[in-house]
Amino acid sequence: MSTPGRLGRRLFQLYVGLALYGASSALLVAAGLGLEPWGVLHQGLAELTGMTIGVVSIVVGAAVLLLWIPLRQRPGLGTVSNVFVVGLAMDGTLALVPDVHSLAVRIPMLVAGIVLNGVATGLYIAASFGPGPRDGLMTGLHRRTGRSIRLMRTAIEVTVVATGFALGGTVGVGTLLYALSIGPLAQFFLRVFAAPSAPGRSTIVATGQPEGAILRP
After folding, report:
1. Alpha-carbon span 56 to 66, nearest angstrom
2. Pick from 2, 16, 118, 187: most CB atoms within 10 A?
């Protein structure tokens, strides 16, 4: 059982991590050089509906969470918090970040967004309050179909990128750079932010998540 101090640290990690994830996604949007896979879909739907990208993120997260029901996935505090905090933080950050046009600014903004995304991922997963709705979809399909995590992740992300791009989402060098770097960054920061383990518990991978799966909101 967690002590009050350890629980407080985990809660702090969870909400700081989710807020930073939303801020990092906003930096990728502002850089305009390519988004992470789900970000491409969110931006495309935002273009289609006229909603802000943060609101779209919340709506999509809630819709994906409904898909957990037939997959018999069980959400945690981190799962539900993910749906709302990331989208709100994204819209809040975009309201503060000015429009930029120079590559001399956009490229560092892209790199900062990717690195911050890795930091945020390490923070919120190490808190061990459950996966984000999109990652729960991936792991749920893995369990129900018997297919590998890698195959499920690839199939889902190819689908959301293709759909988002068709709707007007931005795919570019940032999308490729994110895909190549987020795994190593997330793994590194998972170790950095791992909470002190309770007896008999691992601190590297969030409770209930397959070893080696890189989770994102």
Report:
1. 15
2. 118
The answer to whether the beta carbons of residues 82 and 18 sit under 8 Å apart is: yes
Q: What pLDDT is stored for residue 203 in this prediction?
A: 35
Classify burial at 36, counting beta carbons within 10 Å of its beta carbon; exposed 0-12, middle 13-18, buried 19 or more: buried
Tokens at 158, concatenated: 């190819």
Q: Structure pTM? A: 0.86
- Convert the pLDDT of each residue in 53-95 to its tens digit: 999 999 999 999 999 999 888 899 999 999 999 999 999 999 9
- For the chain, give me the number of helices (H) and strands (E)? 9, 0
CA distance 11 to 55: 24
- DSSP per residue, 154-191: HHHHHHHHHHHHHTT---SHHHHHHHHHHHHHHHHHHH
Contact 177, 115 (CB under 8 A): no
